[in-house]
Amino acid sequence: MHLILHYRHHYKKYFSKNTQDASWDFEKLCTVKFRACKVRISDPDTGKDEWEVLLTNLNRQEFPLPRMKKLYHLRWGIESSFRKLKYDLGCIQFHSKQDNFIEMEIYAHMIMFNTVSQINAQAYVPQRHCKYTYIINFKMSCRIIHKQYNYSSTDTTFLKILRRISRYTVPVRPGRKDKRYIKVKAPVCFLYRVA
């Protein structure tokens, strides 16, 4: 077990008039208990073993090392979902600067993500006799659903959406690693609409 001493009120009291600030619930110093788990993970490309160190406050008896390794592996599904939410649905580009409107946009993107995921789960994916298995292109299905869902939500429109989505597929390539080029983007301001 390790011990961390955390000081109270080491942050600015108010950043802006729109930012909500929460208070620290503990006394001046609080005890945070955690354990360090060192897990060996084999890299499928190079075949070398790498070590990952996980910090957790989960119980040692309920969550031994093999179970912690499974939990670490499961988080990649969550990370890929957040990547789809941020980049495919455009959740990193906000149209407002006020906190409550940004929160509203995040909820709208999450609802759209859930809708697209459910429709993708119902669509037919034609499997070709190829090296890879195929899944539906999430970004194209977002655009198709966004365009088609505005007109009507009848059964014929839904079947049309399913047929159109199943045309756009991408292969699943396991073990693929591409270098990520991330640019920091500021909120998009639409002041030209005022004029």
UniProtKB/TrEMBL annotation:
Top-rank taxon: Bacteria
GO BP annotations of the record are: DNA transposition
Q: Report the residue ranges that make up the Transposase IS4-like domain in this protein.
A: 25-114
What does the record give under GO molecular function?
DNA binding; transposase activity
Q: Known PANTHER family for this protein?
A: TRANSPOSASE INSL FOR INSERTION SEQUENCE ELEMENT IS186A-RELATED
> What name does UniProt use for this protein?
Transposase IS4-like domain-containing protein
